[in-house]
Each structure stands twice: as C-alpha cells, then as structure tokens.
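User: Hey, my collaborator sent me this sequence without any context and asked if I could get a structure. I don't really work with proteins. Can you help?
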Amino acid sequence: WGYEAYWELLPLNGACGSDEAMLWGGNPDVGCADGVPGLPAEVYGNNGVFVSEVACVAAGDSLTLFHRDSYGDGGTDFIVLVGGIELGVYDGTGGGNEWTFAAMAPEVVLADAPCFAPTIEADGEHWIGSNVDATASALEVGPPGLGCGTFGGWCEGGLSNTVWLAWEVPANGGVYRISTCNELTSFDTQLALWRAESCFDWSSFELLNANDDAGCEWGAFRSTLLTPCLEGGETLLIQIDGYYGETGDLEVSVQSSAPELWAVNGNASNLSCNLDGAFNPDGQISVNPNVGAASVEWNWSGPFGFSSEEASIGPLFPGVYELEAEFCGVTQNQTFEVLEPAPVSVDVLLSPNCETAAMQGSALVNGAQGEVTVIWEVDGEQYESEEVSDLPPGLCTVSVEDALGCEASTVVLVDAVGVPAVDLGEDQMGCVGEPISLLAPLGAGLSYQWSTGDSGPLLVVTPEATGTIVVGVEVTDETGCSGSDAVILTIADCDTDGLSSASVQALRAMPNPFVEALTVQASPATRAQDLMLFNAIGEAVRVDWEKVERGFRLTTEVAPGAYVLLDRSQGVRLTVVAR
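Assistant: No problem. I've predicted the 3D structure and written it out in structure-token form, which is a compact way to encode the shape of the chain:
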C-alpha cells in the first residue's frame, strides 16, 4: 500500500524531515517519528516499482535509510544501487526501519555493468571475454522480446548474464557493423546497442538497435546489427546476453560498414473482415530495418490521401501503399498491398419434418475463418447451433460470427408445419349420368392432386357407366407436407336398379392388419381378377392373388400403409392395413 510508506536517505545521524535528506519519497503525511512531517513528495501507488533520482556521495560515507509505515505492517522493499549495481536489499517491516550502510562500490566482474564496461574500438582488436560469471543488475534495461532474427529486439526479453562494452564512435562517424559472428564466440548470443546520458541511470538509456540470431559462417545463432548513421565522438554501450541464460566465450567486433547495406523487410496484414460486415479497417504494415526503425526517415502514401511518417502503420483500409524510406542518404522504395477478404455470408435451408410437425433449419456459412457461432432468433426465442431441429413459426433472424469477429445475418420466414387433415367423407352410392361432388380441405397455400388428374379443391364426377370407382386426393401444404384420402363410388343404373342388394356378399380379410400374408374371403361368385387394391390416394396397386381353399391369398408384397380392397363383382370394399 503505497500511501502507507515514507522514506529518506540521510547522512549518518541525520535528522528525518530536515534539509539533510539526499533522497526521499512517499507520503509526507506519514512523515518521520514523533509527529515530524515528511518532505514534499509524490504518494506512491499500490504494488508498483519506483526508481529514485541519483545522489552523489563520497566512497565510504556512512548513510542511513529511514523508513516509516503508517499501518504498521511493512511491505515496502528497498534496493540500493551504486553505479547501477546492487549494493544491498532491505525489506521494510512493522512500523518502520532505520538501516545504516557504507557507500562502497560493490565488487563487479569486469564488463558486468555499463559503468564498469571495458572499451572496444572500431576496426581495431576484437574484444574477447566471457559472460560466465556475469549477472543482470537490478532494473537493468534490455531489448523487447520480438522473436528470433528480428532487428530491434531479441528472441526473448529476459536478462540473465549480461556483459557491457563501451565504444567511442570514431570522429568521422558513419555506419558500423557490430557482431558476435566471430570464431571464438561459443554460445547463442543476443546483442544490443544503447545510447545513455548516464551509465548508472537506467532511465536515460535509449535503444538504438538489437539482434538475436542473424546467422553467419560461425554459427546460426550468432548476432549482428548495423548501427544508425552516427556522428563521431559520442560513446555508446554494447550489451550482450545469452539466449535463455546461455553462457560461454565471446568475441565481439566493431567494423566500418556502408549505408548501402541497409535493408528493410516488411509484411502487410490484410483486413480481418470485409467492410460490408463489421466496419473495422484493421489492416497493418509492419517493417523491420536492419539499422533500427528510429534511424530511418519514413514516408508512406496510400489510398484516400493516406500519409504517415511512422515506421509501421495501421489500422489501414484496403489498397496499395507506397513506402519511401531514407537512411544515411540512401533511399529505398517499396510497395505493399493490403487486401480485403470476401464477406462472410450465410444461406439458410429450411426443411419440414412432417412426422414431428416441426421445421428444421441449417445454416450454411461461407467465407468464415475459424470457429463459427450461429444464433437463430424467432418469436423471442434464441437457439445457438448451425442446425436447429424445432423452429417455431415466424420471422427468424439468423446471425453468424467467426473467430475473427466477422459477422453476417439474414432473415427468413419459418412456416408452420403440420400434415393437412384430408377427409372426403363416407363412400357414396350414385347413378349413371348424375354428378357427384367431392370437396378437399380448403386453405391458403394448399395444392391438390386427384387420382383423376384434376388439381383443384373441388372435384365433380359424372359417371357414365355402372360399377365401382375409387377416387383419391393428395393435399400438400407450402412446407411440402401432405395428407390423403380416398372414397369408393358405387354407380348403378338407377332407371333399371342395376345393382341388386341381394347380390352383395360380405368381404373379409384375415389377418387385418397383416404382415406379408393376407387371406380374403369373398362371394362364391368372386374371381381373382375381381379383387383390386388401391392405395391411400386412390391409385390401383398391381397385385396377384392365388385361389386357396377358403378364398384368395395375396402373393405380392406391398409397402406398409392403408389400402382399400375392392370386390368389383359384388361392389363391396374393405380397408386393410399392411405392417
């Protein structure tokens, strides 16, 4: 808890809250002992790391680090650095502490810190050393982890065994090549070039360039980089570390180079989504020069009047982008294109399930990337799936989103599903020449198919001869579900009473319902060719009968369903069911 802490760095026996303090910080209301207020300072935030200014003292001076905690639970840790190297670590406890120490320079392995860096000359002798006993200092700076082979960063951003070299740029300035690609380097190195106002003030360090895994004849994991276009006379710092803690021997060189060797690699990232969907022009162009991005003058132009002087640019609209980049008097021109992907679209297929009286839906998504989420919304209900088996009727919105956030939607009308109820009524008796009317159910979107070939809801039959007529109809709704019924019309010559009721004999079928085997008992006058079988829509089904002792046996296999069995000789009929 930063607001609970206050501290001062004092000469030995110095008074807290006086002008003797060399450094101080924290909440002045917490202050010193005995109610003495602290010096004006910034109250710290919670759970943070804060770096003080630098105080200059004589070697060997005795100092006191004074700490107070208003809540009395400690929790503030202090690290004292001399020349950027840890001199001591102090853990704050309870209501406060007073630590006394001598300002002595710590023992440092040569090249282990910037202030103790040996020198290297351009085009001179290579520096040969080791990072085996080196350490990383507290709060030491390091390049970001950008990935192997990338300039301006390292494979990984951690620090373990760093060594530092100081290099004074020759008076004539120019471009130089710094490298561990030398025979005596024995491990996987990471290399960085820094400019610093003070070798012991990490906040003053500016990264000029870095590299990990440039590759050379001595090994794939050696490092090399080109410097910016430098002016002569300034002193720069070279930092070397091992990849994930590797250690070994080092041979570092600094050699004159030429501006013409600078190069830039670029990569265009296309838009995630088509702009007709989610309007998000998020194209990117990233560049990685081998001399460090800050040392190049960038000049971009693109569609809709786009211009920029940044190294990497984005977010971008689709189009062609021109780059003119200048380094140390040498200009390079490159062209990049940012593409817009095809839009995500969704097609909806609706299919009725007539047996369950429900509508099924399938969403066919095109142009999506990765996992796709599909939401159906109809009549206040939501369903999340590419396929839905029981959609209620109504106006349905189908929305899709892929792994990149690209969206599409469409609206469909879901019809109610149900098998039409068809009932033509009881079988009828009629007379030759007199019309008989049959009416199928009425309704919007219904279509009709009669066994006579007619296609309207009303059928008028005018028989021309005596006998028996089977008339059926199939009614289909807009979803494709259908129902059917059939009736038998027995026609007589009413003027002569051509159909004698005494001639009508009973018609029996056993078993009923039946599976494969069906035996029919009919009038003694009935012949096999007098027996006819009609399906539910009145179509005659071709079957064969065999005369047996108790009547006739069906010898033809028929599909499961309801059938009308007709004895034409007697004008009688019977409904039978095949399982």
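In plain terms: The chain has a mean pLDDT of 90. You can pass these tokens on to your collaborator as they are.
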